[in-house]
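Worked problem 6 (solution included).
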Amino acid sequence: MRPEILKENSVSASEEAVAECRRLAAVDPSTEPNLALALTRLSNRLSAALSPRKALVVAEEAVRIYQRLADMHPDLDDSALARALNVLALRLVEVGRRDKALFESQRSVSMRRMRVDALGDAPEGDQGQVDAHTDLADSLETLAHCWREYGNEQDARHAAREADGLRARVRELRSDHF
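Solution. The predicted structure is:
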Protein backbone atom coordinates (compact mmCIF):
# COMPACT_ATOMS: atom_id res chain seq x y z
CA MET A 1 0.00 0.00 0.00
CA ARG A 2 1.30 3.47 -0.86
CA PRO A 3 2.32 5.74 2.06
CA GLU A 4 -0.26 8.42 1.19
CA ILE A 5 -3.06 5.83 1.35
CA LEU A 6 -1.80 4.66 4.75
CA LYS A 7 -1.80 8.27 5.99
CA GLU A 8 -5.34 8.81 4.68
CA ASN A 9 -6.51 5.63 6.39
CA SER A 10 -4.79 6.68 9.61
CA VAL A 11 -6.44 10.11 9.50
CA SER A 12 -9.84 8.57 8.73
CA ALA A 13 -9.55 6.12 11.62
CA SER A 14 -8.55 8.95 13.97
CA GLU A 15 -11.44 11.11 12.77
CA GLU A 16 -13.82 8.23 13.49
CA ALA A 17 -12.33 7.84 16.97
CA VAL A 18 -12.80 11.57 17.63
CA ALA A 19 -16.41 11.41 16.45
CA GLU A 20 -17.12 8.49 18.77
CA CYS A 21 -15.40 10.22 21.68
CA ARG A 22 -17.44 13.39 21.01
CA ARG A 23 -20.62 11.33 21.09
CA LEU A 24 -19.61 9.72 24.39
CA ALA A 25 -18.49 13.02 25.96
CA ALA A 26 -21.85 14.60 25.09
CA VAL A 27 -23.55 11.91 27.17
CA ASP A 28 -20.87 11.46 29.84
CA PRO A 29 -18.57 14.45 30.46
CA SER A 30 -16.21 12.25 32.50
CA THR A 31 -15.00 10.85 29.15
CA GLU A 32 -13.71 14.24 27.96
CA PRO A 33 -10.07 13.26 28.63
CA ASN A 34 -10.56 10.47 26.07
CA LEU A 35 -11.82 13.04 23.56
CA ALA A 36 -8.82 15.28 24.20
CA LEU A 37 -6.44 12.35 23.77
CA ALA A 38 -8.16 11.33 20.52
CA LEU A 39 -7.85 14.92 19.29
CA THR A 40 -4.15 14.97 20.12
CA ARG A 41 -3.63 11.77 18.17
CA LEU A 42 -5.64 13.13 15.24
CA SER A 43 -3.47 16.27 15.28
CA ASN A 44 -0.34 14.12 14.99
CA ARG A 45 -1.82 12.16 12.09
CA LEU A 46 -2.97 15.29 10.28
CA SER A 47 0.51 16.72 10.67
CA ALA A 48 2.04 13.55 9.22
CA ALA A 49 -0.45 13.79 6.35
CA LEU A 50 0.80 17.33 5.64
CA SER A 51 -2.32 19.15 6.83
CA PRO A 52 -0.69 21.56 9.32
CA ARG A 53 -3.56 24.04 9.64
CA LYS A 54 -6.10 21.32 10.38
CA ALA A 55 -3.63 19.71 12.77
CA LEU A 56 -3.27 23.03 14.59
CA VAL A 57 -7.03 23.52 14.99
CA VAL A 58 -7.40 20.03 16.43
CA ALA A 59 -4.41 20.47 18.79
CA GLU A 60 -5.88 23.75 20.05
CA GLU A 61 -9.17 22.02 20.83
CA ALA A 62 -7.37 19.30 22.79
CA VAL A 63 -5.51 21.93 24.85
CA ARG A 64 -8.76 23.80 25.55
CA ILE A 65 -10.36 20.63 26.89
CA TYR A 66 -7.36 19.67 29.04
CA GLN A 67 -7.00 23.27 30.30
CA ARG A 68 -10.66 23.45 31.28
CA LEU A 69 -10.37 20.12 33.10
CA ALA A 70 -7.18 21.27 34.86
CA ASP A 71 -8.89 24.50 35.92
CA MET A 72 -11.86 22.54 37.30
CA HIS A 73 -9.62 20.00 39.09
CA PRO A 74 -6.31 21.71 39.99
CA ASP A 75 -5.38 18.83 42.31
CA LEU A 76 -5.27 16.29 39.46
CA ASP A 77 -2.19 15.32 37.44
CA ASP A 78 -1.68 17.79 34.59
CA SER A 79 0.71 15.67 32.53
CA ALA A 80 -1.88 15.23 29.75
CA LEU A 81 -2.19 19.02 29.46
CA ALA A 82 1.60 19.35 29.33
CA ARG A 83 1.73 16.71 26.57
CA ALA A 84 -1.00 18.50 24.61
CA LEU A 85 0.85 21.82 24.98
CA ASN A 86 3.97 20.16 23.62
CA VAL A 87 2.03 18.91 20.59
CA LEU A 88 0.45 22.34 20.16
CA ALA A 89 3.90 23.96 20.13
CA LEU A 90 4.98 21.63 17.32
CA ARG A 91 1.84 22.44 15.33
CA LEU A 92 2.40 26.18 15.83
CA VAL A 93 5.95 25.87 14.47
CA GLU A 94 4.57 24.08 11.41
CA VAL A 95 2.41 27.08 10.54
CA GLY A 96 5.11 29.64 11.33
CA ARG A 97 3.72 30.98 14.61
CA ARG A 98 7.09 30.90 16.37
CA ASP A 99 6.29 33.28 19.27
CA LYS A 100 3.22 31.33 20.33
CA ALA A 101 5.05 28.01 19.80
CA LEU A 102 7.86 29.14 22.08
CA PHE A 103 5.36 30.26 24.74
CA GLU A 104 3.41 26.98 24.71
CA SER A 105 6.62 24.94 24.70
CA GLN A 106 7.89 26.85 27.73
CA ARG A 107 4.58 26.20 29.50
CA SER A 108 4.95 22.48 28.81
CA VAL A 109 8.54 22.44 30.10
CA SER A 110 7.54 24.35 33.23
CA MET A 111 4.69 21.96 34.03
CA ARG A 112 6.83 18.90 33.44
CA ARG A 113 9.71 20.33 35.46
CA MET A 114 7.32 20.82 38.40
CA ARG A 115 6.25 17.19 38.08
CA VAL A 116 9.87 15.98 38.15
CA ASP A 117 10.56 18.19 41.18
CA ALA A 118 7.47 16.85 42.96
CA LEU A 119 8.72 13.29 42.47
CA GLY A 120 12.16 14.12 43.82
CA ASP A 121 11.78 11.82 46.82
CA ALA A 122 10.46 8.88 44.80
CA PRO A 123 12.60 5.74 45.02
CA GLU A 124 15.23 5.22 42.31
CA GLY A 125 13.78 3.41 39.31
CA ASP A 126 10.21 4.36 40.21
CA GLN A 127 8.19 4.21 36.98
CA GLY A 128 6.55 7.56 37.71
CA GLN A 129 9.98 9.14 38.06
CA VAL A 130 11.19 7.52 34.82
CA ASP A 131 8.08 8.71 32.98
CA ALA A 132 8.37 12.24 34.38
CA HIS A 133 12.03 12.53 33.29
CA THR A 134 11.17 11.14 29.83
CA ASP A 135 8.27 13.59 29.45
CA LEU A 136 10.46 16.52 30.48
CA ALA A 137 13.12 15.45 27.96
CA ASP A 138 10.44 15.34 25.24
CA SER A 139 9.30 18.87 26.10
CA LEU A 140 12.88 20.15 26.22
CA GLU A 141 13.50 18.72 22.75
CA THR A 142 10.45 20.58 21.49
CA LEU A 143 11.69 23.72 23.23
CA ALA A 144 15.07 23.31 21.51
CA HIS A 145 13.25 23.01 18.18
CA CYS A 146 11.21 26.14 18.92
CA TRP A 147 14.33 28.09 19.89
CA ARG A 148 16.02 27.03 16.63
CA GLU A 149 12.98 28.12 14.63
CA TYR A 150 13.07 31.39 16.55
CA GLY A 151 16.72 31.84 15.55
CA ASN A 152 18.22 31.40 19.01
CA GLU A 153 20.77 28.62 18.62
CA GLN A 154 22.37 29.16 22.03
CA ASP A 155 19.15 28.52 23.96
CA ALA A 156 18.34 25.67 21.57
CA ARG A 157 21.65 23.97 22.39
CA HIS A 158 21.09 24.50 26.11
CA ALA A 159 17.62 22.89 26.00
CA ALA A 160 18.91 20.02 23.83
CA ARG A 161 21.81 19.36 26.24
CA GLU A 162 19.43 19.28 29.17
CA ALA A 163 17.18 16.85 27.29
CA ASP A 164 20.19 14.65 26.52
CA GLY A 165 21.16 14.68 30.20
CA LEU A 166 17.67 13.63 31.19
CA ARG A 167 17.68 10.81 28.64
CA ALA A 168 20.97 9.59 30.16
CA ARG A 169 19.36 9.78 33.62
CA VAL A 170 16.39 7.74 32.37
CA ARG A 171 18.76 5.09 31.02
CA GLU A 172 20.43 4.98 34.44
CA LEU A 173 17.12 4.67 36.24
CA ARG A 174 16.03 1.87 33.95
CA SER A 175 19.30 -0.07 34.22
CA ASP A 176 19.31 0.31 38.04
CA HIS A 177 15.77 -1.03 38.12
CA PHE A 178 16.64 -4.23 36.29
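Discussion: The helical segments are 3-27, 32-48, 52-72, 79-94, 98-118, 127-150, 153-177.
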